[in-house]
Amino acid sequence: MPASSRAGDLPALVGAVAVLAVTATGDRRGVTAPDAATTGLLAVLACALTGAAVGALASRPFVRAPGWSVAALVLGSLFALVTTGSPAKHAMTALITGARTATADPPWLACGGAVLLAAACAALACGATARLE
C-alpha cells in the first residue's frame, strides 16, 4: 500500500486509539466499557467522515488555489462542528451529554448521516473531476 493512502488513515487511527485508551483508563461512572467504546468510536467515525466531506469540497476541482483551499477547509471544519444538523456536532453533543449524565447513547444517526454526507461529497467531487478531464 502506498504511503500516501496510509497517511489518510492516520487521523482515524489516532482517534480510535485515543478512544480505546480513554475507555480503558478513564472513569466511566457506571457505563460499561463496550458501551463507552462503541459511543466513542462512532463519534470518531462521524467526525472523521464529516471532515472527509469538508475536505472533498474544499479541494480541487472546487477550490483551485492552495491558499484558498486551506482557508476553506478551516472554515468548513469550524462550521461542521458548530452548525445545527451537522453529524460531527450531533456526535460531539452525544458524547458531552453522556459524560454529564453518566449514560452512553451511541450516535448511530450521526454516523449514518456522516456516511451519507461523505459519499455524496465524494460522488460530487468525482463527477466534477471527471467533467474537467
Strand-helix topology:
Layout: H1 3-25, H2 33-57, H3 66-82, H4 87-101, H5 108-132
Helix pairs in contact: 1-2, 2-3, 2-4, 2-5, 4-5
Description of the molecule:
There is one protein chain. With 133 residues, this protein is mainly alpha-helical. The chain has helices at 3-25, 33-57, 66-82, 87-101, 108-132. Helix 2 (33-57) runs antiparallel to helix 3 (66-82) and helix 4 (87-101) runs antiparallel to helix 5 (108-132). The longest helix has 25 residues, at 33-57. The two termini are 26 Å apart.
Distance between the termini: 26 Å
Task: Give the beta-strand count.
Answer: 0
Mean pLDDT: 86
Major sheet: size, sense and barrel closure? none
In brief, what are we looking at here?
The protein has 133 residues and is an all-alpha fold.
Q: What tags apply to this protein structure?
A:
133 residues, mainly alpha, 5 helices
